Amino acid sequence: MTGRRSTWWKWFALGAALVIVALAWVTSAVLDLERSEWAARADARRQEVLRLALWRMDSWLAPRLARESARPYFEYLSYFPQERAYTRMLTPIEEGAILTPSPLLTFREPFIPLHFQIDESGRLSSPQVPTSNHRDLAESTVLSAATIVGCNMVLERVEALIDVEAIRAQVARAEQRLAMTPLPLPPQQQVRRQQEMSGDYQKAQTAWTMIEQTKRMARNAEQLDAPQQQMLIPDESGQQVDFPAQGADIAAIRPDAVQVGPFVPLWVLGGGEQAELVYLRQIRIGKSHRLQGFLVDWSRLRETLIEEVSDLMPGADLVPRLDEAEGNGSAASINLATVPACVRGLPPLIASIRGMTPTRLALLIVWGVVVVALGAGGMMLHASLLYGRRRSDFASAVTHELRTPLTTFRLYSEMLADDMIPEPARRREYLETLRTESSRLARLVENVLAYARLEEGRQHTAPRRVAVRDLIDDVRPALERQAADHGMFLRIDNPLDSGECVCVDRDSVGRILTNLVDNACKYAGAAADRSIDLGLSRVGGHVRVAVRDHGPGVAPDAARTLFAPFRRGRSASREAASGVGLGLALCRALARDMGGDLRLAALPPGQSGACFIFELPVDARGCDRA
């Protein structure tokens, strides 16, 4: 039977291990998916912040670049002639007689220190640095000499910085790349969640629109004012370039006579110094072509752009994108559209999961259910095996206990029936033995039936209020006779007065005390002190009945299962300790059924024997005398 129970537990452990391993694998997979989802969400949030930051910076710079792209090419001269002019009397003024100062002559922008152009011969000039008579006129009207000197110093720095041939090749390549670059998608086709993030969505939309318009304007020179673009413009020396004649029919001029290229940003390195940012475009008028553009104060522009996104990306930085290929690939998502720079110091990707998420809560519930189910299964298996073991123990104990009286009954009854015992004294001895065995058999059957009724809740008791003294007097004769039959004597100490009452079932109390005295007779029969002490006392709201013998006592390992059914204690005289092991289990069940309890008490060191404490609740309402 032990091997079979071990096999069942091994199968159960194997099944539980498989369930736990499978659930652990599922849990790991689900948590990995959750972490991936959280990482994707965190990356999406970071991309949204980055997109919005790029939109803010581009939206700030785009209108300024659009203004420069829409600027007519002749404004890069300090003074340019008016095509037509009239007096107040509407008298025509001779063509070229009136010069208009360029808006760039007095233009001041914090991050654009200088506008300049490069002619076919490679000479640099600036509308902010007029020469000859134009300088005298400027100093006498709109500019101070110190301002012109300062602009001239910047122009000399640009002239030393720029390699004309190399810069023209770079502009040509940049125009080719720009022509092949698709226009950016409008913001309404971007992620709709940008509308929920910030009120800067409309600002970003405007920025992208401006960028698109700027590139379209730069690609299509026909958007400029054709009559203005094709005026007869002298250069700084006063000589005319190959432009249409002043009186020419504007409608007859071909649309491609003036071609204005787009502004392209370039980083210029000179002599190992810090890179300078310039925006340049090509101007083609007939057979003549030149470069026009402006220098950018990168440090100021960088500080301004970073300030625009300081609330979204604290600690961010802009780094020049010196390599043309750096704008391609995975890094393109952090490049600005209006300036060749990339964003560094991106917000960290925070994907850690804190707290109890719905997924973790669901997994916790599943684990709880599985653990409870495995625990319930283990308890059911234990109960089933325990029930089987109890049934086996019961069958074994009852069979063993029934075999002796039945054998005695059969042998003695046959001998008496066959008149094999002629002596009257021996016949009476045999008859007394049969009576004793029948009583023993009756007690065995009654104990089994009583325990079965208690287990099923079918025990019918008739509790009555009775005085403790009367209750003890009723059971005293039977207990003394029982002790005397085993060669022992019973001492009863009852200091309680007649007013102490309990509400109990008399038969149940008698059965409990009878079983306790019977156990004392069985297991302490070989002791030197053959007395059994039964003492009563009042402790709190209970009457305590202590039954003690002076035998070998109960071993500590046996005390743990002493009140389990079909378990028998150890005795020095195993032959005398008959029974099926139901006595103490039945007594405890009967005591608790009446509201009391039965337990094994610990004796002081140096004292031998076993002491059982039987407690009953006191009933202070009075006693029924019976």
Number of strands: 17
* Morphology call: rod-shaped
Spans where pLDDT lies below 50 across 5 or more residues: 184-191, 193-204, 217-255, 327-333, 571-577
Helical fraction equals 40-55%
Using only C-alpha atoms, the radius of gyration works out to 57 Å
Number of separate helices: 14
Oligomer: single chain
- Give the biggest sheet: 6 strands, antiparallel
- Based on secondary structure, the structural category is alpha+beta
Whole-number mean pLDDT = 78
The count of domains is 3
In percent, how much strand structure appears in the residues?
Answer: 5-15%
Q: CA-to-CA gap between the ends?
A: 52 Å
Secondary structure layout plus pairing:
Layout: H1 2-69, E1 79-81, E2 99-101, E3 114-118, E4 124-125, H2 132-141, H3 145-161, H4 164-180, H5 194-197, H6 201-219, H7 226-229, E5 258-260, E6 264-268, E7 276-285, E8 288-296, H8 298-308, E9 317-320, E10 341-344, H9 358-417, H10 424-456, E11 464-467, H11 468-485, E12 489-493, E13 501-504, H12 506-523, E14 531-539, E15 542-548, H13 556-559, H14 583-593, E16 597-601, E17 611-617
Helix pairs in contact: 1-6, 1-9, 9-10, 10-14, 11-12, 12-14
